[in-house]
């Protein structure tokens, strides 16, 4: 009986341990995944009732062409930042915007959001979009693209490629990433959730590296469809994503004259012989100076004679007549003695019969239908 109890006890103990393991596994999986529709609670005054100890401030410059727009929307900017207890000032003489905290400011991150707001306003982002940065789940990214391409014409073409015809490429990127993207000058301003900003930065940098944005947009579309399937969330998506290989179509032109490298030898080239060595080899070194001079004069005269003959040949070329081309064989003209008199007579007769003016009109022969009608009429009369 005891053994049966022990066996029963052991059999009851095992499922308890397994149940604990399964509970732990479920808890870990729940921690990894964020439930749909969950939002972090906002930071209120109750979380920091005493406020901030020190005052912090940020300033940014803006271009001259933004002055008119900032004057128009300035009351809205003051109202939006006043709700977060942030003081903002506009200096038109210096061309700068300054934000700073006050005694009533309770959110320590509000000044960072205010800094991002004035940065976006300076980068030509409209106020309606820039004010969204004050929300909790929003962030911004200002991507500098001015120094990525050296050639200015190439830079303008790639920047236009990012915008697309009538802004279609930029609109597609905004829809896939849920971000607002503004291309202005040497920077690209993006505003949206963190995951979208990461994708926008990747697309912008790849475009400036001569990778067309349509490839990245295609991968984003596939990722968007795959994320809807709950079974594929924990799996790798590499087998679904396309692999675009860079094709270098322009081949390098080969030079006409190819220089072949000589084989490497560790020994230096032989030293050239000096004039004394050459004279010793030929035996001229031991001759007298008068004989040497006479030999040089003979060589000079031979060279002069060769040059004179060449010049004389060139002069005589002008007096040599060119070769005439052979004449083409032409048909022999008929001799005066062998005239065809009868043919001439026939031509004269034909010319006499022909009359000047328009040719005579020949009346058309009557048709069978008209002849039958005439016969019927004659019979009726009879």
List the total number of helices.
12
Q: Between the first and last Cα atoms, what is the distance in angstroms?
A: 153 Å
SSE succession: HEHEEHHEHHEEHHHHHH
Spans of at least 5 consecutive residues with low confidence: 1-23
Number of strands: 6
The shape, in one word, is elongated
Beta percentage is: 5-15%
Strand order of the largest sheet: 1-3-2
Q: What's the rounded overall pLDDT mean?
A: 81
Helix content: 40-55%
Description:
- The chain has helices at 2-32, 67-83, 110-122, 127-130, 152-163, 168-177, 194-208, 213-227, 275-282, 289-316, 341-353, 368-381; strands at 57-61, 86-91, 96-101, 139-144, 180-184, 187-192.
- It starts with a helix and ends with a helix.
- The radius of gyration is 52 Å and the shape is elongated.
- Residues 1-23 have low confidence and may be disordered.
- The strands form two sheets. Strands 1-3-2 form a three-stranded antiparallel β-sheet.
- With 382 residues, the chain is mostly helical.
Quick structural overview:
The chain has helices spanning 2-32, 67-83, 110-122, 127-130, 152-163, 168-177, 194-208, 213-227, 275-282, 289-316, 341-353, 368-381; strands at 57-61, 86-91, 96-101, 139-144, 180-184, 187-192.
